[in-house]
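@channel sequence for tomorrow's demo:
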Amino acid sequence: MADQKWPADKVERRKVADLIPYARNSRTHSDEQVGQIAASIKEWGWTVPVLIDPDGGLIAGHGRILAAQKLGIKDVPCMVAEGWTDAQKKAYIIADNKLALNAGWDDAMLKVELGELDALDFDLTLTGFEEDELTAFIVDPTEGLTDEDAVPDAPAVPVTVLGDVWLLGAEWECSECKQTFSYADGLPFKDDGCPCGKA
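structure tokens (generated this afternoon):
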């Protein structure tokens, strides 16, 4: 396959106005995502040509073209897929997006890379991650803080069992006479009840 002609062998400029988006493109692009792509182009320039058929029909790069329109870019680098059947074009439009989604992340390595970029004061939003995702990677959890719904595991040997009475505070007040007694002096109601005789 050394003499195979690939679409990527040649890149040419085409006017954005002459490119035709695929009307049945199943991949959607939100305004937020288009804004992210535009920010990426502003930071790094145009790094990946769009893929088109000989008539200017878009096969891959719909999001980049929307970003180009947002930025007022008049012409962009393109690769032309010569000789593709309609079936090949339809399938590639899907595969180009789906194959990228099938990749995963090495979370430990990503944490290192994002941490270093953060230390260099680089705008991490240009990576495409949301603020909460970035926070989860670059901010170490605070000691002692837990999720409000988190419940600790029950101990093998419980501290208290059914029937135990816990006394809170340094004093006890009779519910009848409202007289206050210090626990340090013992519990007057333990044997005989409160001196008032009502409790």
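heads up for whoever presents: Residues 163-199 form one domain.
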